[in-house]
Design a protein that fits this description.
Blueprint lengths: L32 H5 L9 H4 L5 H4 L1 E4 L3 E5 L9 E5 L11 H22 L3 E5 L16 E6 L8 H4 L5 H14 L7
Antiparallel strand pairs: 1-2, 2-3, 3-5, 4-5
Bound molecules: zinc ion (ZN).
The site of zinc ion has 6 residues, from helix 2.
């Protein structure tokens, strides 16, 4: 399956020292899309540090917790592709505090429930690419991917699911997910 936002070669999971699995798209290296193609006036600023300073609409944020927040991936693998980020600029999961770990986990659970309710997805790919060598596009700031999957991967928001970056459509998805998000998500 071709990622519409990607012009890099997709690595086959068969090349890895493990059994082939369904996760190969999670390992596709991100390009520095946020930094190169974004509208950031301060191009050096980390996109995941900057997003919480924006409005929910501008930052594509669907939920704000105490230690972490949830936003739409600007270049989704699939429609409804969410990212859970700590507010702190930390690179890897082992640097997260127990409070951050707990809230990242709780927000991930809530995201799964919300996406299931809103989009009727059949499954998820969830994971973190740790370090640029592992495919992290924004390697400096930890982010957990939550990618909803459908049996056909084409039933929900079929246009945007194969569309790179149409802010209007991303905005519709953001509003729908945010509307379904419960008020209390903190653990
Ligand atoms: Zn950051």
């Amino acid at each position: 399956m071709t990622d519409p936002s990607d012009d890099v070669e997709i690595e086959s999971s068969a090349d890895f020292a493990a059994v082939p699995d369904a996760f190969q798209r999670l390992w596709t290296p991100h390009r520095m899309v946020y930094i190169q193609n974004g509208e950031q006036p301060h191009i050096d600023e980390c996109p995941f540090c900057r997003a919480p300073k924006l409005s929910d609409e501008e930052g594509l944020i669907v939920a704000r917790g105490t230690h972490a927040y949830v936003l739409l991936n600007l270049f989704p693998y699939n429609s409804g592709h969410l990212l859970v980020c700590p507010y702190r600029h930390i690179a890897t999961y082992d640097l997260a505090t127990p409070e951050e770990v707990a809230e990242i986990g709780a927000l991930t659970q809530t995201a799964m429930r919300v996406l299931t309710a809103v989009s009727r997805c059949d499954g998820f790919n969830i994971g973190m690419n740790q370090g640029r060598v592992a495919g992290a596009g924004v390697a400096g700031h930890l982010h957990q991917h939550i990618v909803p999957r459908w049996a056909q991967d084409s039933n929900f928001f079929p246009i945007i699911a194969r569309t790179k970056a149409l802010p209007q459509l991303l905005g519709e998805v953001r509003a729908q997910v945010q509307a379904a998000w419960p008020d209390t998500t903190a653990p």
